[in-house]
Amino acid sequence: VKDKLGSEVYVFCKNLKVDSEGTEKLYREA
């Protein structure tokens, strides 16, 4: 259970980081 939860949290954080970087790029281009 811990491994499954850990990997889900890792993927969530990874996606969050990608989203925030993409948003920053959009703001700079706007």
What is the strand and helix layout of this fold?
Elements: H1 2-29
Can you give a write-up of this model?
- With 30 residues, the protein is mainly alpha-helical.
- It has one domain.
- It has one helix and no strands.
- The longest helix is centred in the middle third of the chain and has 28 residues.
- The chain starts with a helix and ends with a helix.
Keywords:
single chain; 30 residues; mainly alpha; 93% helix; rod-shaped
What fraction of the residues are assigned to beta strands by DSSP?
A: under 5%
**Mean pLDDT across all amino acids:** 87
Q: What is the number of helices?
A: 1
Q: How many distinct domains?
A: 1
Helix/strand class: mainly alpha
Helix content: over 70%
Distance between the termini: 43 Å
- Over all CA atoms, what is the radius of gyration? 13 Å
Order of helices and strands: H
Shape: rod-shaped
List low-pLDDT spans: none
Largest sheet: none
- The strand count comes to 0
Summarize, please.
With 30 residues, this protein is mainly α. The protein has one helix at 2-29.
